[in-house]
Every structure is written in structure tokens, then in C-alpha cells.
Amino acid sequence: MAKLVQKFGGTSVRDVERIKAVALRVKGAVDAGNQVAVTVSAMAGVTNQLVDHAANVSTLHDAREFDVVVSSGEQVTSGLLAMALQDLGVSARSWLGWQIPVWTDSVHGRARIREIEDTELNRRLESGEVAVIAGFQGLGSDNRITTLGRGGSDTTAVALAAALKADRCDIYTDVSGVYTTDPRIVPKARKLHSITYEEMLEMASVGAKVLQTRSVELAMKYGVRLQVLSSFDTVPGTMVVGEDEIMEHEVISGVTYSRDEAKITLLRVADRPGVAASIFGPLADASINVDMIVQNISEKGDATDLTFTVSEADLEHAVSVIQTHRDAISYEDLLWDPNVVKVSVIGVGMRSHAGIAQRMFQTLADKGINIQVISTSEIKVSVLIEEAYTELAVRALHTAYDLDAR
Amino acid sequence: MAKLVQKFGGTSVRDVERIKAVALRVKGAVDAGNQVAVTVSAMAGVTNQLVDHAANVSTLHDAREFDVVVSSGEQVTSGLLAMALQDLGVSARSWLGWQIPVWTDSVHGRARIREIEDTELNRRLESGEVAVIAGFQGLGSDNRITTLGRGGSDTTAVALAAALKADRCDIYTDVSGVYTTDPRIVPKARKLHSITYEEMLEMASVGAKVLQTRSVELAMKYGVRLQVLSSFDTVPGTMVVGEDEIMEHEVISGVTYSRDEAKITLLRVADRPGVAASIFGPLADASINVDMIVQNISEKGDATDLTFTVSEADLEHAVSVIQTHRDAISYEDLLWDPNVVKVSVIGVGMRSHAGIAQRMFQTLADKGINIQVISTSEIKVSVLIEEAYTELAVRALHTAYDLDAR
């Protein structure tokens, strides 16, 4: 017998039929002798509709009232799933954030969980009752509903698994696990049996949308064993666990890409102390996240070229911020390009294997692909290339690192 | 300066544009120097959709989970209206049943309000903040959301007005007040300036759908001055108040009718003690409400004919209950007829005026309308007639009691 937290996202509960199917799946886990807590998202489309309503009422709306409105979607699903379980003869009860409570700070719209009151939930689970918990929501110290931000139901599930000391947290989604790369680009992509938290974090940060970064961080912090799997079939998914749980790592776990990148280059910036601060300070003030940064070696010693990337959505804003501060920064020309993609290879095996980055550069060179910017972390190498080469690069790297399914 | 409770029903908040219009109206009351608490229903259609979802998940659903699901509609409206008010520069905050709390018993689906915690609400109102309260919902002693039953938002508004000792409770709806009769049948129907609680109760019980009976009872009990008015125009509505507030009553305030009646007649029932119990006991056990009852004078002393009415929806069920208990009741034949209508004249003036009922019978006789059953209360006379005569009877009575607009 195990204690499980199961999380079902919006597509898994998109209509009444799907909610009934989820109930059957939960019943299966109960019948197998497990204690089960379930976290649910809003039915697909509901949250977007509520967000639209709010936006149409007021463009600058109060985050506290926004939370009251958008949290209602998960409330509905939790009640419906509890009913569906009862209909199958499974003892079940719904729980809203304020009822448990899931205590959060009072940063409405992107609250962080502080503590989950687990006594009553544990008592119920031990008595054989399924707890159906509305994801995405909590209770702030101001006695008002808070929400955790987009994808917050993953975070609820992981936090719950940590609080309840669950044996596993199963994240049911519309994909059947974590793949070595995007199967739409590489038909030979393989589903991974397991992956480390660190690799999953790097993947999430470069565009693999399987899990919300924050929930993986939380799982890593509390050692919550995650499984990503599909609610539409019954095969095992991908385990996301600590490095110690994986006996032998692949060198590279995955090749990812993110098209949501735009490149900005400042030509002939004065090469003096403080110049980086004069550029990135104003961008930070404008809440623009800068990703990759590269500074070319200065030719004559008095000026240098500086390139960095921002998300495509921020490009226009970033350019205007730089132009506004032209005098303070002092540059000769400003170039930008949204037609770039960041391709990354990720793997904890990188730490103990030399030549990983070199193989990446050689593979791209062999295909005639020019690398514009490089950035590396302990378990990731990323390159910025022209967007048109995305598929070519991803496929070539997938083969080069021996990831293709046989 | 007054303390006002305003209630807006589903059609008044049916979409974002209407919610903005409501916000403007509330702002008007605030700008005039009033303290304002607002109760809102779910946006028109939302509750029905949630009820459908619940019915599709499980036919025999847990009332506690049903309440979790259906209460979300009012939650959304309260958040959106608070936003819309803030957008107009009006300080506002939404309140859900559990936040105030609106304490109720734990009879989920049709809970009764026990107490409303008013300290914090009053403090906010005094500070100039508008309180936007989700109607229809409360918190049971089991720490779970309860709902008050259909039309419960009226009850929330009145209970709130009582708890806050409001000067007036304005019920905004899609009609502009209480009329002497249905304007669709009698174009000369007049909007009443005022009406007593008792008259309003009688009207509600015979088909005038303006206010939920329970909310009027509550208003009467606590002396809450109600106003029924339209959210689609700006003219004064109808005041529903105690008799002492109305200087001179009309003799008759209104003529109402209810088509939702069906007549059942048992021929030659044994005329002995306990026979009524043998009929109405099984009907009560089957949760069938019986309205008018008339027992004809027994011809020979050993048997009698007995006629009563039930709602049309209950007719089939009632007939089958009677047939099931045929032996215990002992009757010769059973007749039923759904093509009947109950027409009533209502007025507290009846108490001090003789001949009111007689004028009704004479008026109907003059039109050749046969009266099948009669029932009277202190301030109401009702007759059951053939449904085809509805319009003719209502118009004739409206004229006979001098109610036609001049």
C-alpha cells in the first residue's frame, strides 16, 4: 500500500466524460489498496474564459478579485470529481484551498505556498476517503483566496505530496512522459524511463512544457518522486527523481529548443566598467528577463559588441528601453533579430563526460549551421542559431548523441 | 446618508456589460453618500450549466459536493463586480459566504441562515468600502459551503439587510416592481407604490415570481424594508413594507393566477374519521404538496366526494400514490384534470371590507365562469376554474376591483 498524490490537468478533465474517466482511474488506485489524494485543474478552457471576463471588466484589475474569479474553475472540477467518485462507490470529499488550508503568502496571482495543514487530510486518507483537492489555489494571511499562477496545479500537487509525505506524485497530462526531444520534429524521439530533477528543470526552462519549473524545484527540494504520464492511456510514464535513484545515466537525456527567443546586439559599446549595468539595469527595471549574454572581445580596446537574448514578446519593449538609454549606455548601433532559436542538449552525464559541447559544435558545423551565441551550465549546453535551422539541428543532435529509438 | 443593501439577479449581471452597468448604479448610490452592500447572483445561465454538469456526472449526487460546484457562479460575479467598481474608482471588496461567514445549518442544497457575522462588514462599510457579497451561499457547521436553494440570493440580501440593520434592501430584477396583475394579460395593470409583506407573500405563493417567498418571510420577521425595482431603468419600484407604513390601503392589491395547478377528485370516499389522513398521509410521504382541498357534503352520509389540487409536475406521481393506496382509502372512482387555473384576489383591505369574496363570485358568474373549488385566507380569496378562462377571469376581476390604470 502506498500513499499517492495524483494530479489531472485541464485536458484530462475537459468535460464530464473525461471527469468520469479520471474517477475510474482513481478508483483503480484505491482498489489496489492505495491512499489517494487527487489535485485537479479547471476544465480545459474555463480558466481562459474567466480571465477574459476579468480583462473585459477592467484592464487594471485588483489581483485579489482576479483570484476570486479564476479560482472558481478548480472549485467546480473538484466538486464534480468527488461526485463522480462517489457515484462509483468510492468514498471521496472535495477540498478547496481555504478549507485545508493551503496557506500561502498574500502575493495574489502568483502566491507561494507556505504550509499545508495535513492533519485532517491524513486522517481522511487513512480512513480510506479520497481527498479531491482544487489545485492552483490557497489562502493568504488576509483570509482571501490566492492563486499560484499559471500551471499552479502542478505546484499544489507536489506541495501536497511533500506535506503528506506521499510515496509518489503522478502528474497526469496529455503526453505520456518526457521525451528525448519533441516527437513532432523527431519521430525517433524516445520516452525516457527516468530523468533527474536537474535535467527536468533545464528542460522546462528551455521550452519543454511538460512540467511547471516551480513544481520541479519544489519536488527536488522535498525529494518528491514525480511521475509524468498520460491520462489517455495506461502505460508507465517518466519518473522524475533524484540522481541517486538512477543507477546509470545516459550522457545526454534530451535535446530541446525554444523558438521564443529574440537577439539584440549593441555595436561598439564603450568598453569600460559599469557598461553592463547601464544596459541590464534599465531592462531589469522594465521587468524584462535577459537570457543568454555574450560580449565579443574588443578589437581596439576601447569598444566592444554585446549580444543578448530576450523573449520574443519582450523584444519591442527591450529595444525601446535600450534606445531610451542610448546616451547613458553609449553605443554606435543597435540590431535585433527575432528569427533565432535556442537549441540545448541536457544531461547530468555531462559532468563526467568530456567533449559533449564539442560534439554539439561539430555536429552543427557539419550541417553548415552557424552558432550565434553559446551558453553553458553544469548540465546543459545551449546555442542560438537561425530559426530556419531548428528541425535540422534538433534531428542532427538527437542522432549525434545516440538518442534515436532503435 | 443611508445604509443600503442592493441585490442584483442573474439577468441584471448576465454579461460583462451588464456587470459594468450595475457597477455604475452602485457608484451612484455611493456618490449620493450611502453605505452600500451588494448581493449578486450568478450570471444568467451559469447556474443551470453547473447543475447540468453535476447531473451528468451523477444522478444521485452528494448535496455537499453539489454545493461546491453550484456556488462557484456567484463567486465569479462577486469578484467581477468588485473589479468593475474599482475600475470606476469605487473602493470595493468581494465576500464569499465562508469569508463573512454567513453561518447556515448543514442542510446542503437548501440551507437556512443562522447568523451573519457583521462586525468586519460594518467596519468596511463605515470606511466607505462597498461590500460585494456572493449570494445564495453560506458556511455550514461542517466547514463546508452550503447553498440556500433556488432564488437564495434574495434571502442572502434580506438576511444581510437584517444583520447590518440596513435602512432598505433594494431587489433589482428584470421587472420594474410589483403589479396589480400580470401586464401581459391586462395591459391596464398598474405598478403598486407599496404593498405589505403579507400581500407579497400571498402573491408569491400564487405564482407572482417577483420575490422568493422565503426572503419575504425573512423581511417580515426582521422588519426589513424591501424595494423591488428594475435594473434596466431608473424609476422607483414597489416598496414591500409593514402594514403600519402604508397609510391607506387599497381594498385589493392584486389579482394573480397560477396555471401550475392540477385537480384530483376522489368519488364516493368513505365518510369516516381518518379518511383524510389515509389520503394526504401517503402524499406527504411522497413529498407532494397539496394546495386547495374541498370536501363535498355527503349525500347519504356514508360517502363523500373529495377534491384537491397539486402542482402539475406532481400530478402523475400523486395519481399513482392514490391508486397504490386504493384499498386503504376506499373510493369508487378517481378523476384528474390538469386544465385548471387558480385565480386569486389579494389585499389586506379585505379584513375591514365586507363583500370582497362575493364580488369575485358575482364577477365570474356574470362571465359564465364556473367555480370548481374555493379557498380563502385572511387576505386572499382563491378560486379554481377551467384554464381556458384565465385571461377573461383575470381581466374581469381587475376591472371589478377598480384596479385598472386610468
Q: Average pLDDT of chain A, to the nearest integer? A: 92
Q: Which percent range fits the helix content of chain A?
A: 25-40%
Number of E-type strands of chain A:
18
CATH superfamily of the largest domain in chain A: Acetylglutamate kinase-like
Radius of gyration of chain A: 24 Å
* Oligomeric composition of the shown chains: homodimer
**CATH hierarchy, class of the largest domain in chain A:** Alpha Beta
3D shape of chain A? globular
How many domains make up the coordinates of chain A?
3
Spatial arrangement of strands, main beta sheet of chain A: 3-6-2-1-9-11-12-10
Measured by residues with Cβ under 8 Å of the partner chain's Cβ, the largest interface is: A-B, 39 and 39 residues
- The name CATH uses for the topology of the largest domain in chain A is Carbamate kinase
Unreliable stretches covering 5 or more consecutive residues of chain A = none
Number of discrete helical segments of chain A: 13
The share of residues in extended strands of chain A comes to 25-35%
Classify the secondary structure makeup of chain A into a structural class: alpha/beta
For the termini of chain A, the CA-CA separation is: 36 Å
CATH architecture of the largest domain in chain A: 3-Layer(aba) Sandwich
Largest sheet of chain A: 8 strands, mixed
